[in-house]
Amino acid sequence: MGFVFAVLAVAGSAAGVPAFVTLLLLGAAIGDAALTLARRVARRERIFSPHRTHYYQRLTSLGLSHKQVTLLEYLVAALLGVSALFTFKGDRLFVTFFSVTWLVFFLLTLAKIRSMERGGRLFWEGRTVAVAAGDLVFIAASYILSYYLRLNFSIPEAHASSMLMSLPLVLVIRSVVFYYYGLYRSVWRYTTFDDVARIVKAISLSSLIMIVSFTLLFRFRAFPRSVFIIDWFILTVFITGSRIATRWFHELPQKEEVSGKRILIGGTGPMAELVVQQLKKTGGCRPVGFLDDRSEMIGRMIHGMEVLGPSGEIERIVRKHEIDEIVCIRSLLDRFPAPLLLSLQKTGVTVRVVSDPSEVPDVGSDSRQRAPFAGMRVLVAGNGELAECAGAIFTDARGITVISDEARVLGESVALSHSHGEGISVYLGLLGDREALSAIIERHRPELIIADFTTGTGSLSNPMEGYVRTVIIPMERMARLAAEGGDVRFIAIVRCADPEGSGAECAPLALEKILGEVFASGRDSCTIVRSPMRMSATAWAGGLHELPPSGGSVYRIETFGYGGNDLARMRESNII
User: Fold this and answer.
1) Alpha-carbon distance 490 to 446, whole Å?
2) Rounded to whole angstroms, how far apart are CA atoms 497 and 481?
């Protein structure tokens, strides 16, 4: 390839095409190779030994995917092609201008990569300044380019003078109108049709103001009127294209595999769309289609995927399309009977239920992160989220046992099971029977017991009495069974009551005091976690993962991130 380009450069010179044009077309490869080689020589490295210090390799090491780096290469190649065209059509001014511009670009790119390798960010905190600066470049480039296109790359001196004289006014007018329409406050990675509409309005209004201003100030002398139409079109493409391309760039898969799990989305609507976007971004999986019970939706296309049929035909759809996983929106879970979900899991199809897109990154990946208490036998008792989502939280547990007095909780536990290890065992209506609980513990021999009880005090005439009956008494019963079990760790999830001045605000503290008395002779076996009223499975998995291997302390769990509900951290509060 190098030989071919060398011959073309020589032949092109004889035909009137400067050799510099060939160098500019290959600027990405030549510039990277030259700068990388100079850097290795300066460091006294062996230049003939293998290495991974080219800028595109360093970008992949920083976390960009293969597609993202390749698209950046395409963009640079396209811009170099445009530069070569202008250099060929223009005079020596273009040669100097593009040479300096691209040299500075490559140097700044390598400097930014080096900064990111040292922990820096892609954009600094004042990213609004960067957006405004980028728009100024687009505005100037569009205005100058419109002149060259209109005048066939040959600008008379009068037009060149009027273009340079009016350029500062164009920059000011465009910038003020863009600021007025809020273009500098938008987040590019979330660009929507509303943002595109605002961009078109801002460009149209600023073009109108420019025409009026030039008429009043310059009487439109040496200003070709079609320049403003060309400028409007080019600038619209530049601004909207940059915003849309940024969103597309961020939505590209972070992880790419030759093959991935085939995913069926249970449900349609806004939540399903967000889940699909997150699945595509996460990578390692291939969304195949949707389920929808509405007859008019069957066969329709959403995000390039077909609505394959209703939930009643899920078994046929799974067999026909070789589905590996089903991702079901939690609000639609009641459409899938528990026996059906169990039969699907027996055939090797994983069924996962998500409440929000923050829970999606665990879907479709075999390398699950933040799986707490891996390799342990876990028993979860109660009616809180830990009981509901035990199968999704303790994905690497050797065995999972769930005990609850609510059938809904057990149904969701089974639906969220990952079918790992010995599977998941569920028991209904035994929390008040001490002998039955003791027999279950003896049968499954858990190494960890987690009690998570909640109560809706707002619906009770006496909230304090309700808290005692539905939380304190069963929690104390489970704690004593764990204390009698010997080498068993006990984790109590203590939630803040919502008593509305009933006096029940002291109940959680009373519960903690009772637990302290139960484990007075073995405090290292008990851990208390003070928790918000509701958290997602993702938040629980992350929070529990941070607990130390031994107990004896009180922790409070703090949520943060997407919707305040997708990540969590533990903070030690005080000793029992």
Assistant:
1) 10
2) 25
Decide: helix, strand or coil at residue 417.
coil
Q: What topology is assigned to 377-575 in CATH?
A: Rossmann fold (3.40.50)
Under a CB-based contact definition with an 8 Å cutoff, are residues 532 and 496 in contact? Answer: yes
- Domain 377-575 in the same topology as domain 261-362: yes
Query: Which pair of structure tokens corresponds to residue 109?
Result: 């790119």
Query: What are the structure tokens assigned to 193, written together?
Result: 């049709």
Q: How far apart are CA 531 and CA 558, in angstroms?
A: 8
* Residue 114 burial (CB count, 10 A): 13
Helix (H) or strand (E) holding 517: helix 507-518
Given a cut of 70, is residue 359 above it in pLDDT?
no
Per-domain residue ranges for the chain? 1-122, 130-252, 261-362, 377-575
Q: Show Cβ contacts of residue 59 under 8 Å, excluding neighbours closer than 6 positions.
A: 68, 69, 72, 113
Contact present, 113 and 60 (Cβ < 8 Å): no
- Upper half-sphere CA count for residue 374 (Cβ side, 13 Å): 7
- The topology (CATH level 3) of 261-362 is Rossmann fold (3.40.50)
Q: How far apart are CA 278 and CA 258, in angstroms?
A: 19
Cα distances from 453 to residues 100, 380, 412, 448, 575, in angstroms, run 68, 10, 16, 16, 22
Nearest to 414 by CA among 432, 405, 431, 401: 401
The structure tokens listed for 498 are 């919502």
Whole-model pTM: value is: 0.44
Q: What is the largest CA-CA distance in the chain?
A: 99
d(CA 213, CA 220): 9
Q: In the block, which residue shows the tokens 């938008």?
A: 186
Question: In the structure encoding, which two tokens stand for residue 438, read together?
Answer: 């003791």
Tokens of 41: 């020589």
pLDDT in tens, 148-189: 888 877 777 777 778 888 888 899 999 999 988 888 777 666
Q: Which two tokens stand for residue 354?
A: 């998500």
CB-CB neighbours of 49 under 10 Å: 7
